[in-house]
Amino acid sequence: MPSRTRKTARSTIGRILEILEAILLLSLAAALFYLTRPVSHLPPSLTIASGDVGAIISQLRKNGADVGPIDAMLLSGFAPLPVGTVKLGPAPLSRIDLLYLLASPGDRYRAVTLIPGETTAIFLRQLSRQLALPYSKLLEAFRRQSPWREGAILADTYNVPLRYDANRTMSYLLNLSRKRMERLAREAGVGVGSPGWHRILVVASIVQKEAGNRGEMPLVASVIYNRLGKKMRLQMDGTLNYGIYSHIRVTPRRIREDNTTYNTYKHRGLPEAPVCNVSVAAIRAAIHPATTPYLYFIRNDRGGHDFFKTYKEHLREVHQKRRRIRERNASEPKGGYNTPKTPSPDDQPKGAAHHVR
User: Fold this and answer.
1) How far apart are CA 119 and CA 277, in angstroms?
2) Distance between CA atoms of 236 and 242, rounded to whole angstroms?
């Protein structure tokens, strides 16, 4: 009797083990099926501002991705998740690939934008803040790797991998810019390291600083070339917004005291180096300027400039604009918060080749 009982017990345990094994195999098969299934409606990229798993799952669901509690549970084992932007497309991703990308710090990047007309001195400060890299290291890497003191990085948005140090970050930005510049230099019929290309960059940087919009860039370029051709000083405020002075208003005192080649009120010809970093549009304007007789221009009230052939025409417009400013100020009610104000720098009549204050 005891022997029969033991056999029955062993048989029961065996069946239980078989059931558990079957459950385990089924669970593994279900997990494998779940993890290898493609995830639908994923966005091309995902920016993770914090490592909170719930927020990330919610962000994906808002884009229509079929993720849910199981994914949140799996990801929670890797919390907090690394911040930054991760590419999720365009190729389809399985669930296990998605979870790996979200949990792995190696594929994170951050989009940084170099605004057209910004100087390297200001951009490196911005880069340091956004990528948490030492400014001194970025500056050192730039000075060591850049062929020019300014204008070596094209104004654009760059996806910089967060695993890069200062040296590799600078190499990445300069190499991408150089490849695009090489194509533009071929368009101009010069080499990217030639004096001809350097001249184009300098002109493009002045165009970038002076033009009110992309459409008038070839016109501004024509004024620059026309004045150079007549041995006239450029007399442009924008050339004095170099380096750390990128956002500093140009005053008469500054014009008197700045003795660099960037001061085109004193210096005849182009500055010795680009004033700022430039866009492709500004470079193309420097390569393909409009054919015009213009030598002067002045800011208008439409966000651009009006162009003139002669100083007499230009000066007439300056006087008319000053009169309009005086009339506008005189028509404003006095007292309280509506007291007439001194015209701001943007209200002052300006001509990119001849500025009137």
Assistant:
1) 6
2) 12
Inter-residue contact 219 to 297 (CB < 8 Å) = yes
Local structure of 143: helix, strand or coil: helix
Determine the Cα–Cα distance for residues 118 and 285; give it in Å rounded to an integer: 18
| Helical (H) or strand (E) element with 18 | helix 2-36
CB burial of 231-258 (b: ≥16 within 10 Å; e: otherwise) equals eebbbbbbbbbbbebbeeebeeeebeeb
User: pLDDT value at position 348?
Assistant: 38
Asked whether the beta carbons of 46 and 79 are under 8 A apart, the reply is: no
315 φ, ψ (degrees, to nearest 5): -65, -35
- The helix (run of H) or strand (run of E) holding residue 160 is strand 157-161
The model's pLDDT over 70-90, given as tens digits with 9 standing for 90+, comes to: 878 877 776 677 777 878 777
Residue type present at position 316: R
Q: Per the structure block, which two tokens stand in for 345?
A: 């720098």
CA distances for 94 relative to 41, 70, 87, angstroms: 12, 15, 14
pLDDT in tens, 99-108: 777 777 677 8
Q: Residues 179, 185, 187, 190: is their CA dihedral positive or negative?
A: negative
| Residues 122 and 100 sit within 8 Å (Cβ to Cβ) | no
End-to-end CA distance of the chain: 116
CA 318 to CA 349: how far, in whole Å? 6
Using a 10 angstrom Cβ sphere, with 0-12 exposed, 13-18 middle and 19 or more buried, the burial of residue 68 is exposed
